[in-house]
Amino acid sequence: MQVSDVISLGRVKADFAMPFNHRVVGQHYLVTNDLGDHLFLTPDELRRLSEGATVPGDGLYERLTAANLIAAKVDVKAQADRWKRKHQYLFYGPTLHAFVLTHRCNHGCQYCHSSIVGMDRTDTDMSIETAERAVDLVFQTTSPGVNIEFQGGEPLANWDVLQHIVEYARQKNALAGKTLSFSLVTNLSLMDDDKLDYLIDRKVQLCTSLDGPEDLHNKIRIYKDGNAHASVVGWMKKINQRYKDMGLDPNLYRVEALPTITKPGLTRWKDIVDQYVEVGCKAIFLRKLDPFGFASRSYKTLGYSMDEFLEFYANAAEYILELNKNGVQVMERHAALMLAKILTDQEPNYLDLRSPGGACVGQIGYAPDGSIYSSDEGRFVASMGDEMFKIGTVNDTYHHLMTNAQTRAMVMAGLNDGQPDCVNCVYKPWCGQQVEYNYKTQGSLQGRMRDSVWCKKHKRVFDWLMARVERADPEEMKIFERWTSTRVLDHYLQDRSALGDNAE
Ligand code: SF4
Question: Quick one: how far is CA 172 from the chain centroid?
Fold first, then answer.
């Protein structure tokens, strides 16, 4: 279907429609505006929109009005307020603060992004002094909400500093009064009952990696001191039971796990999904292998083309949908984030799907030596010997970090409206940029979307999703709508008014 077969330039009524983009999806043209409204139109309906050939009472007029596609019918004040609500993240600084507590790790995962070292290299641990300076900076963010995420290496290897950061941040928050939460990304192999008691008591959210069934997980996530799969699954079940025993809703409170999809997993989409369901997960985030760090060096054995990934994705997502129809409530996280933007007025603030992208203004990453990077990915690039994304150190001021030339360049390059291809793309209101990915894969912050695998992935996943939405029956629509319903996990929020237990 060529748009030139539908729209005749000489007949376009330029002031009738709001600015819109379009793309063929299934049997229809998908049309979106900058507010994120969408509509599926037949070719004839698209022609009538472009020519202003529709009048009140003909049905199309009412649908176009509801989707804010008729310029004269748009309530500008109400829509400006709506746009502002959906872009709240533009009004404050970074929310996500990723602390790399150490480069040490006891796993040798074949795709590992980080510059990991052996467990004896305690010299790569973050010190208490650096940790305190980093926390001081965290509390200078203008964001009302702050999540401190512990990463590594294996962050549990630097346990004393992890505990110190939790206590120090809680004390600081007694004055700052921010919405403070902590999360820990761990392989769980160094977990023990005492650590778990502390983490549960301090409401630290736990996230781990699970690549699928035992043979697949252990093949990739190499752990010479034991069975990596048995360890992670055992702890996940134990922790989920603890939440249950505390009376927390098991649909909301459980260990979050993420798979990284490698070549051996491409044909195992059913096994991977089944493993997540078996261990009690309610969400699966099907992630493609990133081009950062060690992963790029092992790309030959683990890597695959974007087309192969997208085939895997569609198979897995269809299977997840089928499970839901059979009463198993599990969602694909990437689809759920997209659907929240498409079907509701929510902005999940997922940093890869916003404009500008998350670099510097959505998240910052703190390395053990006190270096500060645009993001986790920025630090991965640094671990490959390129300090492009270093925006300062813990000795700098917050003002300097947020306003220096690198930060400004990354924000500018991370805008969809600054990308020649994105400005004409039907998915622009829901999509986003990652400047680190552009730089790593295409050599510049800006990149070139028509040749970009980032763009290809987003476009094709949006295509799959919108084609499913276009032909969804009521049961499927209900499932998609359920995936978009978000509830605040307030159990994980720290008490904003009281001093931490250890505070003087
Ligand atoms: S990155 Fe690609 S899919 Fe996303 S808005 Fe830009 S052109 Fe569209």
Answer: 28
